[in-house]
Write a structure and sequence with these properties.
The chain is mainly alpha-helical. It has a domain at 31-67 and 108-215: Tetratricopeptide repeat domain (Serine Threonine Protein Phosphatase 5, Tetratricopeptide repeat), CATH 1.25.40.10. The protein contains 16 helices and no strands. The chain has helices spanning 2-26, 34-40, 58-74, 87-94, 107-129, 133-146, 151-163, 167-180, 185-197, 201-214, 219-231, 235-246, 248-261, 265-278, 283-295, 299-321. The longest helix has 25 residues, at 2-26. It is elongated. The two termini are 14 Å apart.
Amino acid sequence: MNKRRIIAVLIALTLTIAATGMWSAATIEREGDPDANVIEDSGSTAGRTSEPKKAGNKIVKALAAPFKAFGRLFGHKNDKKLQRMTEKDAEQFESAGVTRVDDGSNADAKMDMSATAQQHLAAGREYLLSGRLNEAIAELSTAASLDPKLTEAHKLLGVAYDQKGLPQRAKDSYERAVKAEPQDPETLNNLGFSLYQNGNYRAAIDRLKRAAKLAPTDERILNNLGLALCRMGKFDEAYKSFARAAGPLTGNLNTATMLERFGRDDDAIKYYEAARRVDPNCSFALRRLADLYQRVGKSTESQAARNASATASVGSVASFEQ
């Protein structure tokens, strides 16, 4: 029996070290908002909707990340790679010559124009999904120019501009879409998250609360609202939003993680302990408590949390063996 226990402990230790190593490799090339990335590690969903997803195996990317970083350090710049878009580049897209026929007597011309706008919209969406943002903006701008009432073009333009690091243009596009469809929670979420990313937290909370009223069970919206509330120091409200999104355990973990990011270790401990009360065997909460108690000078509590974490790990491995 003792031999099996020792083997179980060694297996648990090996799995922990391997997972930590892979997480470290993955974070070398971490894209997106840092706060959103942190809570996504707990399984939460955050960020924009209509987010273009890059294909590929995450594990392979994690293992390849150190080699890519090494290559960038000693390699040469790829002159053929598309460079970052500037405001001037965006203006060229928006001012692209589009001949518009607005003759009320010519219904066929209007229908043709609408069909053409839809074609550019479809092309822009495909470019956006494949990560070709310059082409996406060109196509979507043409679609919006041909048919200013084509709300979807403004929505996707907002996403594309956000991805290109042009927040003001993203905000303008989202607001055009919201003006056309004020009851659309997805666009309100995207606008709110864009405002949040650029430090306009009060406005972000306003938009995200409106989105949450329209879609009260949408996890992404609720988590984004929680992130914005954290940035305003409203952690109790943030917890409620996180908990509405994914339950009290994840709500406590996300709030504690954000508090820890802000250097508020004592407050983080309270939420990790709350998570522990929900699930006494939550290994993540126990590991963080062990580190935080040690950091604030409470060695006895730190060791108790460390022992509880080891026991929980052995129990999970033993259950797996059975």
